[in-house]
Specification:
By secondary structure, the chain is mainly alpha-helical. About 70% of the residues lie in helices and about 0% in strands. The chain is rod-shaped and about 70 Å long.
């Protein structure tokens, strides 16, 4: 009985990790798209140069 429970527990852990990693990939892709859009659509400064869209 214990080996069956261990296999089921391992399957649940791997399923949860797979779901979490999948969600992290989608979040990373969304952040990359927002960063690229901000980089491409940033405004100009009073001097005519391109301004920074972030505050680093």
């Amino acid at each position: 009985m214990v080996p069956i429970l261990l296999v089921l527990l391992l399957a649940l852990i791997l399923f949860g990790a797979g779901f979490a990693l999948e969600a992290l990939w989608w979040i990373a892709i969304a952040v990359l798209v927002v960063w690229l859009l901000g980089f491409l659509l940033r405004g100009t400064t009073a001097a005519g140069g391109r301004g920074r869209w972030y505050r680093w």
